[in-house]
Amino acid sequence: MNSPPLSYVEMQKYIKRATFPIQIMEVDSESEADDSRSKLENFKYYTSLVLGTLCIVCIFAFLFLVPFVLDPAISTLNHEFVDEAVTCKATSVLVRHGKSNCKWSSCREGCTMDMYMCYQVRVQYADIPWVNGTLVEEVPEHMWLDLTRFDDKENATRSDTPLLVNIKGCGYPPDINCKAFAIKYDNISDLGETFPCHYSRVNRWIVLEHYSFTENLGNIFASVGIPNGLFSVSLLVLLYWYCPYCQARCRRYEEQMDHGDGEGDGLEKDLDRFDGIDDEPREFDGLAL
After folding, report:
1. I need a labelling partner for 194 at 20 to 30 A (CA). Which of 14, 30, 202, 277 fits?
2. For the segment 225-284, what is each residue's pLDDT rounded down to a tens digit?
3. Is the pTM higher than 0.85?
4. What is the domain range of residue 185?
């Protein structure tokens, strides 16, 4: 038995009951999309904050490294110090006080402050490889290099030369301890022992306590590469996120790639359609095709 037809009002109620679950699903999907979008925006915000701070820190770090690491390392390499340590002996170890007496210093804690106490170590060296345990008296006198010259800072003729803790003759604790530096070479001088040192091929009156070509080269690459590399990566990410021109270029490139893929898919569908057509004749309304 056929049921009576539904009225217009009943029909509307039926449609609402049928579509209500679909509306709930749409609201749920929209709320999930909003939540994911808010999480992504929060991640982008905090990441941008970190990257911006990192850019500023890298700029100041590089400016700090230029005078304290980069410039001394480049200057050291330019002086072409010998890689293999030669034999040195301490000729005098003095600790002087007063600004007028401290015109130079082998070691200074702080490179910008005025000197009111200075540690002055003067040496002579023989251009022979240093051997541990060698005494000064074991080296023939003619092997010691003649370094006689008029020293402008001392205002006198000297046959020795200053020993520097580094190319600048200064540094900062804990790497540089000038008191321990003076005590060390004072004890070596009292015992009559030799010690290793490195002289410059460019200026033989410049002598360093320690020298390493790889260490100075590593300092140059590290002080230039690390802060500049982090700055560049952070800046590129921020430009990609917030530069409208960069976003437009990237979006245009993606659209071109998607358009090319779409054309390829359409061509494959056409070929599949033609492959499905067989060669056998078929009848349609009594007519053979």
Report:
1. 202
2. 999 999 999 999 888 888 776 666 666 666 666 665 555 555 455 545 545 545 444 444
3. no
4. 82-210
CA atoms within 13 A on the CB side of 202: 7
**Number of domains making up the chain:** 2
Q: Is residue 149 part of a domain?
A: yes
Q: 115 with 185, same domain?
A: yes
Helix (H, G, I), strand (E, B), or coil: what is residue 286? coil
| 19 and 121 inside one domain | no
Asked if residue 253 lies in contact with residue 240, where contact means CB atoms within 8 angstroms, the answer is: no
pLDDT surpasses 80 at 18:
no
Confidence of residue 223 (pLDDT cuts 50, 70, 90): very high
At 121, which helix (H) or strand (E)? Answer: strand 117-129
Q: How far is CA 261 from CA 58, 252, 267, 274, in A?
A: 42, 14, 10, 21
Q: Where do we find the tokens 């021109």?
A: 245
User: Exposed (0-12), middle (13-18) or buried (19+): which is 79, by Cβ within 10 Å?
Assistant: middle
Backbone angles phi, psi at 122, to 5 degrees: -115, 145
**Does any domain span residue 118?**
yes
Please name which of 76, 70, 74 lies closest in space to residue 167, comparing C-alpha atoms: 76
Q: Where are the alpha helices (DSSP H) in 211-289?
A: 213-242, 244-275
State how far Cα 162 lies from the chain centre. Answer: 35
Q: CA nearest 120: which of 135, 150, 98, 145?
A: 98
Domain annotation covers residue 88: yes
pLDDT in tens, 97-148: 988 888 899 999 888 878 888 999 999 999 999 999 899 999 999 999 999 9
Whole-angstrom distance, CA of residue 233 vs CA of residue 121 = 47
Q: What is the mean pLDDT of residues 53-60?
A: 94
Look at residue 161 and tell me if it is in a domain: yes
In degrees and rounded to multiples of 5, residue 58 shows phi and psi of: -65, -35
In this structure, the answer to whether residues 147 and 62 fall within a common structural domain is: no
